[in-house]
From TrEMBL:
InterPro entries: Class_I_gatase-like, Peptidase_C26, PuuD-like
Superkingdom: Bacteria
Protein's name according to its UniProt entry: Uncharacterized protein
A GO MF term: hydrolase activity, acting on carbon-nitrogen (but not peptide) bonds, in linear amides
Signal sequence bounds: none
Pfam families: Peptidase_C26
GO cellular component, one term: cytosol
Gene3D superfamilies in alphabetical order: 3.40.50.880
Amino acid sequence: MLNVYFGGTLYQDLRLTSSQIKHLQSPTPQEVPTHHISVEKESSLGFLPENYMVNSFHHQVIKDLGQGLQAIAHGNDGLVEAIENKEKHVLAVQWHPECTW
């Protein structure tokens, strides 16, 4: 939603997009990490370990970044998993960290 607020666009439903987009929609419990992400080291999430594991149970994903946003984490499939705008103190992730504690 933050990406759209900043003027970005979404793939509305990954199941209905091009077959070239292969993003794991896991049938596992929400608290189980299912895929790796790569994080930009100079970002607000730079403290995370390389190839951090996250859960995945979303059907929308960023297509075009909104104004002033930076993609700071990507899945192995290249899709954006986290964004930030340091000037406005905005950080958003696609996964649900609250489910992994």
